[in-house]
Protein 1
Amino acid sequence: MKAVGWSLENSFGALPDLLFTPLAPTPVTRPTLVALNAPLAKDLGLDFSTLSEQEQAELFTGNRLPEGAQPLAQAYAGHQFGHFTMLGDGRAIVLGEQTTPSGARVDIQFKGSGRTPYSRNGDGRAALGPMLREYIISEAMAALGIPTTRSLAVAATGEWVYRETPEPGAILTRVAASHLRVGTFQYVAMRQDLSALAKLTQYALARHYPERLGDANPALSLLEAVIERQLALIVEWMRVGFIHGVMNTDNMAISGETIDYGPCAFMDAYHRETVFSSIDHAGRYAYGNQPTIAKWNLARLAEALLPLMDAEQNRAVALAEAAISDFVPRYNALWLRMMGDKFGLEGEEEGDAALIRELLDWMQDEGADFTRTFHGLRDGLPLDGELGQALSLTGWRQRWLARLQRNAGGLAAGQAVMARVNPVVIPRNHRVEEALEAASKEGDLGPMQALLAALAQPYAEGPELARYQESPKPDERVYQTFCGT
Ligand SMILES: Nc1ncnc2c1ncn2[C@@H]1O[C@H](COP(=O)(O)OP(=O)(O)OP(=O)(O)O)[C@@H](O)[C@H]1O
Ligand SMILES: [Mg+2]
């Protein structure tokens, strides 16, 4: 294949054998390219313009592997809705790691590329709609400035996959800091291979936390590092109203990136108990539960690492508990700072938390749109419109304005920080579904391209964005999202 700039290596393949199975993607019958992320390709040091469209389609379905690829499927385990299972890439293949021009090492992975030894009863394939969904939402998350895996391309396979109805098959090319999951550690711990666990720990530190490599207790240090990244990540999800939907331990990345955009969604009306996923009947992964679940998942990581932390189990448990015990107060402090920014509050005052909670409670009672309300606060100062009138009734508006005046930089400083952290455009479900419907049912990619363009600058204002800012009308409302796996 003509030079496109691949520099693939596979350091993961040097890890102990139990962690993977070398395996090539299953060829597909009639590949076509559906989406290619040119700016991301550039950031990766890749240029596909030397390839014909057919060659690109062959490349992004795995019919022709890029030079240097050493494909493999990774093994992992996971607690799915609280139940432990041995899993692994049942429909994914890592091709290798690309070193970017800025020196970062990232995995290049196909999702939907055929059966593997970890497929269990699955067909190893993915449908076009869900892969485009992952493309749209992961790219929106990146533009929002939130750590995430990225989407380089989606290619259709020309084959049908059978879900509730036959759907066109597709493969997503995903780019990730790595595909190490909490579940990867659980898998090795379950296999009781201490030497492999130690090697995996060193590998994770080298790849994601090199500054900690010399630490006296590597397993404890890794746990602390992952806790810190996950705290930061969950607070970011809460900032934009993102609901992951399947926070199983196999869907929590050691790198701190958001991974696996299954039935995820952005909340329209603010409500802490919001759930979209069709399979989350008990609301385990509801918006407001995400920090609690993150802590639960991290406790599973801690358990997996225990045998490395100290040969004496009681001492190991004490170390792990100490690392995780202040998760809630740390989260609360980060959440308060994040919310302070959303409300434009400089510094911290005693009454801030109450002021913030009062408005959130009001939003929940009123069914107010999360993104639009903050956008309204941000742009409506001194809030003399409709929103301001409603908030004047409770006296909230007056108290908030008085608090903003106490900012060192006054109202203007508050407004500046609010403009930085309160998005104007998010990938609203009804717009995402509309774009997916056009793409996968009618082959019309126009609505998706327009949506992607709006999502690329989520903090910018502009009259052309109005249709992406609107809350769904009653008949447009999406109540459930499906994995479509
Ligand atoms: N169609 C399928 N065929 C085989 N295995 C599947 C299929 N769909 C999902 N799986 C496997 O089931 C497990 C749970 O699926 P889940 O939806 O969390 O992951 P995923 O979306 O396939 O992948 P990832 O977490 O890498 O984004 C994973 O091990 C996944 O590989
Ligand atoms: Mg998954």
Protein 2
Amino acid sequence: YIWPGPYDLLEDAYTVSGGFADGGIVAGVQPCSVSPFGFLPGRQAAAEWLRVAYHDMATYSTETGLGGLDASIGFETDRAQNIGTAMNTSLLFFGAFQSKTSSMADVIALSVILAVKNCGGPSIPFRAGRIDAETSGPETVPEPQQDLASHTASFALQGFNVTEMIGLVACGHTIGGVHQVDFPETVQNAITPPNPEGMVHFDNSFDSFDNHIATQWIDGTSTDPLAVGFNGTTNSDARIFAADGNATMRAFARDNEYFTSQCGGLLERMLNTVPSTVQLSEVIEPLPVKPHQLMLSLSSNGSLVMSGYIRIFGDSDEAASANAAAMLVKLSWKDRNDQSNTSYFTSAVAVSEPSSSLWGSVRFFQINSLIDAQSGISSFVIDWAFNNQETLTHSDNGGSGFPFQDVALLQADKSCITPSSRPNPTTTVFAVIRMDMGPVSSAYIDYTSNVIQQGSIAVKQVTSRFPLAHVGNSSSPLYDTYNVSFPTGENTNIGVITFDIVAVIAGKTYASLNNPAIITEC
Ligand code: HEM
């Protein structure tokens, strides 16, 4: 896609999985065996995230087109079929990645893609655009004491035939296990001091997304409590695995690659099962070149300062072996009249802290450049190479360059929030708006904050508009200063808070998008 795009934040979280500018999600499941928040013994975050996604999706009905992956699970956690604290600990973790452009349902989907990949499983294509439900869905999650006919009917309603049901259950039950505290009718005598929840794993490689769930079932060494458990009534995996005479499980057991690729396809369909009114995006893949937190601000001496980073991603051998410090990354801009000039460029410097990606190699390069305020900037291109010998790759964001406006700018150094010691914090935002383009007909900020939802641990994000007031002049005769103070709202510690600064001049809209929440205290 073209930058800036509606799913920039999700693309960041998808692409960067560690180090500088870490997207943050993979840290919650690294390594695959790790427990939620790193300290809950007998728990496995990766498995919990996969179970959350299935239980959220299992409200889908092919008959009504309602339900599916829509984060309605937040309103359903007190149901017996969703027993366990895993649902809420997962949603609490995911909350930190919700934003104006990343719904909770998209974060749930992305969490599965990253967790499965990080556990050695398939690469599942990621699409965004899910919309969060504001209420619960039907009580249609399958339970282990139900018979095969009920399970077959449940999966059919969710859109999966018998072969696909066997596959989906095997792909789900290749990591994690069953906890005695929640399923005492399925697991007994498993609670010990190091295993306080009495976790019994489905197979002998609970922290590897592999076909052992099938090999052990076929060769008679299965330990799956839902297949060979002491209570025949809750052996739903046994009934499901054998539903086609074990043909599917035998094929999985024979070939780990076949298992992995089948799971990739089935889990992709599971994650993309959404209400029929939801239109998912195209597949999101790492952008090869992407600006990161790139800002333009007005300095105290009246010139413009461009600061931030350029991210370079590649999945080739060359990308893997490149040395960031020896890479050349050059940013060339056009002025506000769309003119180039040989002096309009800056070289980006490799960030010393490395970054990692599950999908290839990713590196960041820092930009810090002065731009003459009179000539300004309208867009830029990046010329770069993995080493200093080869010819440069020209990245122009699909043809017209990376758009970069110099009209409505945040003054981060003047903006602040009232001290946290005071209740009901107020944020004050200062901005400068260019005044040599005609009268400003409208100036405002759109501020996105969190609202508690009755019945769900997950917050809802709402955007409020606050008009900017004209204050007076600035450090440059080309810009006027504006500001606004507004109540920051509750729960600013959950979810990604961002705001846009918008100015309308001569019928055209100029916006500085997705500025991070102001945290400097007044
Ligand atoms: C008939 C269908 C299913 C039944 C009856 C069922 C039942 C169960 C039960 C009783 C547990 C134990 C939960 C706990 O103790 O925390 C469990 C765990 C799990 N299930 Fe299923 N399940 C089914 C289908 C699926 C599917 C389709 C998936 C995903 C594709 C899935 C993914 C998981 C995962 C990953 C765990 C491990 C959770 C953990 O370790 O915390 N399940 N399932």
